[in-house]
Amino acid sequence: MDGNDMASAGKCPVMHGGMTAIGRTVMEWWPNALNLDILGQHDTKTNPLGKGFNYREELKKLDVKALKQDLNDLMTDSKEWWPADWGHYGGLMIRMAWHAAGSYRLFDGRGGGGTGNQRFAPLNSWPDNGNLDKARRLLWPIKKKYGNKVSWADLYILAGNVAYESMGFKTFGFAFGREDIWAPEKDVYWGSEKEWLADSVLRYANAEDPTSLEAPLGAVHMGLIYVNPQGRDGKPDPLKSAHDVRVTFKRMAMNDEETVALTAGGHTVGKAHGNGLESNLGPAPEAAPIEEQGFGWMNHKTRGIGRDAVTSGLEGAWTTHPTQWDNGYFDLLLNHEWELKKSPAGAWQWQPVDIKEEDMPVDVEDPSIRKMPIMTDADMAMKMDPEYRKISERFYNDFEYFSETFARAWFKLTHRDMGPKARYFGPEVPQEDLIWQDPVPAGNASYDVDAVKAKIAASGLSINEMVSTAWDSARTYRGSDMRGGANGARIRLAPQKDWEGNEPVRLAKVLKVLEGIAASTGASVADVIVLAGNVGIEQAAKKAGVDVKVPFAPGRGDATAEMTDAESFEPLEPINDGYRNWQKAEYDVSAEELMLDRTQLLGLTAPEMTVLVGGMRVMGTNHGGTRHGVFTDKEGALTNDFFVNVTDTENYWRPSGNGIYEIRDRKTDAVKWTATRMDLVFGSNSILRAYSELYAQDDSKQKFVDDFVAAWTKVMNADRFDLA
After folding, report:
1. What is residue 435's DSSP assignment?
2. What is the reported pTM?
């Protein structure tokens, strides 16, 4: 070997970029490029269970009684490597379940405990999730035993339920059915801060107005589930904390009563940990040395476990008996005066001015020692905010009512992101239909579908009217929390019937026709809306010279106003629909990025997005009938003209102002078409252009129609959990 040999020069011949952070990514080189990664997350290649795995079938094999007994036994099986407080892991398991579910936010339905995402970054290393790695590791022997018959996601929440039950609380119920993901989520925006627990002002348009918290965020700091337990920006002020608590819990769709119940119920058991120095802790799991094997926040300087553990920095229990369900939280909160003190870790906390020794909780390791109880700033808000105070006093005076309210609120917290009850599984699913579950009555599936289609075809409705109405009904679906969709036909109810994006005047006209057909045939309005869209597509394909039958599954039901929590549907209102080339206003985020967000919520891939946009354009389904992006002389025919013309190099593209572009003929300079960014991105983005070129090919006309129909059917059936 000569001196230029790679090995002799000390260079490694292995490509590093795929294994480490060495090497710049495409987005680092070109940060303004459209990032399509969110449409490719949770690819089947990351899932080791394979395409044939069916979690619901595995659940049928699960011995639920035995699993719950094993979890119950775990609660008091204290391990030396992470000893249980008072010999009971209940508080730790409840916090794990709470923090898994509590990241849910109503704005976009993302977060929550429905995917087992807490075991991946960034959640596994959030400051607010400190030491929950120990809770998850304590569960491992049970997960190992039951294997694929129970997901991590279900196990986390069930562990919280069993913890409460083991301490004397009667839960409202439990549903299995959460399927695990196998890689970190790429679609959840947790904030723009570059450091944990950064100043909260970064999240507010107006620092003095808690309601100006940046949407869709629910927490006041990067790395917190809700609010800072020491007070806003670590400065105690219970009334300010009350404002923060009210906003963040509302963003989980919780009212004041549910908020007080959850706060009190969560702090009735367990304790906060801050008996030591935070500086002694090692890095979070994602940054910890390889020998820690997934553990984080390890203390190799002092004892760091049991009574000496450090997590939040606050130190102490909230109640006299922290391993039993009782009314002790309100007893201490309302019947004592409280003063600010510093914990051993230096965190602000509230402690009683005067308290009898027998009312103090005992030490977690030595029952002969009594310790001061504490309250966080958010706890003090339950006493000092006038509205919260009224509710706290009512709960204090009616323990049974408090227990029932908490049971329902806990069930809502831990099941909200699961979607409709059709997705629930198991022996403890409550029979009661709850309005936040968006109930839909069973529909009729035995009518003559062809007869209904014939009536629709003879109704005089245009292709645009039929396809647009079906799309608007179905596009509300979001796979983040399985809400929205065509089932229920809520497009005819408030608030959806009045949304600007649904073109209320046009919608009312179409619905009048379709409701008449539904009434005369026995079909639901929901089914007729979808069928009308299918009829429109079949007509458009025929105009393009392609015969196709769009698949249809009858059986949708029609929801009523009484079944609809109108306020909670407001966040589902579209502000952008790239598929119908519409945007409600100008936003900081580009139109094409908003289109990607909607696409990801619909569960569509980049190729499916591409084919749907191209087909919708040529059928003339633009909002308000605009001509932008309608790159065809045969509007109403399901041709591949959109792709032919967006990729045509005989054209050039020029901005004309107000976000509109002109497509001009290179030879004559005549304006041939107009377009928005949501059109031109399919020719400018290298990945989307590759798809566009495929569909523009002369041999792709049939493929284009077939792929469009498949993607369309996927959207129409996205909320048909009864078909799974």
Report:
1. G
2. 0.95
Q: Which amino acid is at 599?
A: T
Low-confidence stretches of the chain (pLDDT beneath 70): 1-23
- Which residues, other chains included, contact 698 with Cβ-Cβ below 8 Å and sequence gap of 6+? none
How is residue 82 annotated by DSSP? Answer: B
Dihedral (CA of 129, 133, 134, 140) sign: positive
Degrees to nearest 5, angle at CA 436 with 243 and 412? 65
Question: Please, are residues 87 and 78 in contact by the beta-carbon 8 Å criterion?
Answer: yes
Spatial separation of the C-alpha atoms in residues 652 and 665, rounded to whole Å? 7
663-716 pLDDT tens trace: 999 999 999 999 999 999 999 999 999 999 999 999 999 999 999 999 999 999
Cβ pair 630, 644 in contact under 8 A: no
Q: Given 16, 88, 99, 321, which residue is catalytic?
A: 99
Contacts 24+ apart (CB under 8 A), 85-88: 85/270, 85/271, 85/306, 85/322, 85/323, 85/364, 86/322, 86/323, 86/362, 86/364, 88/166, 88/167, 88/323
Nearest to 221 by CA among 118, 312, 110, 304: 312
- Retrieve residue 416's tokens: 């909200």
Cis peptide before 495 (omega within 30 of 0): yes
Give tens-digit pLDDT for 404-448.
999 999 999 999 999 999 999 999 999 999 999 999 999 999 999
Any catalytic annotation for residue 243? no
Is residue 646 within 8 A of residue 630, CB to CB? The reply is no
Residue 324: DSSP 8-state: S
| Residue 25: both structure tokens together | 């990514």
* Amino acid letter, 290: I
